[in-house]
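Reminder to self: tokens first, then the designed residues, so the page reads top to bottom the way the pipeline ran.
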């Protein structure tokens, strides 16, 4: 495996298939389709049918979608939004940009919000709880919905990891007063950058629609950057990854030919100028193609998760808890070991790029915690999980043979060290 050019990777263009690359390539030469068109509206309609949500509005990211949701609630400045640590700065920044305050709640060993800690963190300024369904594992929604009802708090579902997951027979995203989804490069489906804002009631939906109108489209250079992503990644960077591809990736990102998932400004709590924006037509076309594949992608993820559960059962690793009351989508198969960092590094040396979500309570780990208002030590379990977790790939471009290579590596490491 170590000699192959193309790595086994959890995050490098994980969902992109041949037809997605062909479509992106074709769109690069049809610039009249980039900005305006009917695709975003069509995407919203298909999305509503697939998920059962009532009102849905397409944006250029989950970040923009969350900005729209928060704007729609019209909370007074300084209102507190309770959310879990063990998250990405992309889930926190829209709260700060809206003039609101994130209040961090610890997470449980399911990687989701800890309800006992949530009860302790509520104050008279609390206005909403945002739950995450981390790695596609649904939260205990019965208890959370009840808690929000009792305390008169709005519920927002962050479904960035969990499109297609369900709780007690109902799709996630349909429980909250509002929810949002992400279609960014390493999510359940991808159009490089994309998101959906969802509202349950009509008034909130109308305010989100007005926000979408005001937000306008991203500029053409930004759209071109995203269209180039599947093409360059799959035709040049990945096939040559272990010789020069990885250097090309850095070079393309530095010269802004390709985008990065997170802008450096966001690590300081600042907003890049391409948020908030509505979804441009070209990315909606890519997203529609991916949405057709949702069930197949998630079935594949579930099969690989079942394989890892079986194949790694005799190791000393802690396996992810199985969803008792629902269906998990296993965006990543997340395991725990005290030597997580060492395992990740050793795997990378063998061209197996397993994932490190999350290495700190708010990632990327060079995010300035004070700017994101996180107090070190305030969520001890999130901090512990950040030291001990790593993720195995489940996406459609990982075959059973590759999953077996990952699993064999882990078993070999485990035997040698335990
Ligand atoms: C948990 C979580 N919430 C929200 C987001 C934001 O989504 P997007 O990247 O589409 O802005 C992300 C992804 O970055 C995420 O991982």
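Designed residues (418 positions):
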């Amino acid at each position: 495996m170590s000699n192959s050019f193309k790595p086994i990777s959890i995050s490098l263009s994980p969902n992109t298939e041949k037809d997605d690359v062909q479509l992106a390539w074709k769109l690069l030469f049809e610039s009249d389709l980039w900005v305006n068109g009917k695709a975003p509206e069509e995407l919203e309609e298909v999305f509503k049918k697939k998920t059962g949500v009532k009102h849905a509005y397409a944006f250029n990211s989950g970040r923009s979608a969350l900005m729209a949701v928060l704007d729609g609630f019209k909370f007074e400045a300084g209102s507190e939004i309770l959310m879990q640590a063990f998250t990405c700065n992309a889930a926190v920044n829209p709260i700060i940009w809206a003039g609101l305050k994130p209040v961090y709640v610890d997470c449980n060993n399911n990687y989701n919000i800890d309800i006992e800690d949530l009860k302790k963190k509520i104050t008279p300024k609390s206005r909403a709880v945002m739950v995450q369904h981390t790695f596609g594992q649904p939260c205990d929604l019965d208890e959370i919905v009840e808690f929000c009802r009792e305390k008169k708090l709005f519920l927002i579902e962050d479904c960035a990891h969990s499109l297609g997951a369900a709780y007690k027979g109902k799709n996630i995203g349909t429980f909250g007063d509002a929810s949002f989804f992400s279609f960014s490069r390493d999510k359940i489906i991808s159009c490089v950058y994309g998101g959906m804002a969802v509202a349950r009631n009509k008034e909130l939906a109308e305010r989100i629609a007005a926000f979408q109108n005001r937000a306008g489209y991203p500029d053409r250079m930004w759209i071109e950057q995203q269209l180039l992503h599947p093409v360059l990644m799959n035709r040049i960077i990945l096939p040559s990854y272990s010789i020069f591809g990885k250097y090309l990736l850095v070079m393309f990102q530095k010269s802004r030919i390709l985008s990065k998932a997170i802008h450096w400004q966001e690590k300081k709590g600042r907003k890049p100028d391409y948020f908030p924006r509505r979804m441009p037509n070209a990315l909606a076309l890519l997203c529609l193609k991916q949405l057709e594949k949702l069930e197949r992608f998630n079935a594949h993820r579930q099969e690989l998760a079942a394989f890892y559960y079986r194949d790694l059962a005799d190791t000393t690793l802690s396996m992810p808890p199985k969803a008792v009351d629902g269906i998990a989508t296993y965006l990543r198969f997340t395991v725990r070991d005290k030597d997580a960092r060492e395992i990740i590094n050793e795997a990378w040396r063998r061209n197996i790029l397993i994932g490190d979500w999350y290495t700190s309570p708010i990632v990327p780990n060079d995010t300035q915690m004070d700017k994101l208002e996180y107090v070190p030590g305030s969520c001890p379990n999130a901090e512990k999980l950040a030291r001990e977790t790593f993720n195995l790939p489940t996406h459609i471009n990982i075959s059973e043979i590759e999953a077996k290579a990952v699993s064999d590596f882990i078993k070999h490491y485990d035997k040698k060290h335990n």
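The pocket of pyridoxal-5'-phosphate is lined by residues 61-63, 87-88, 90-91, 132, 158, 160-161, 182, 184, 195 (CB under 6 Å).
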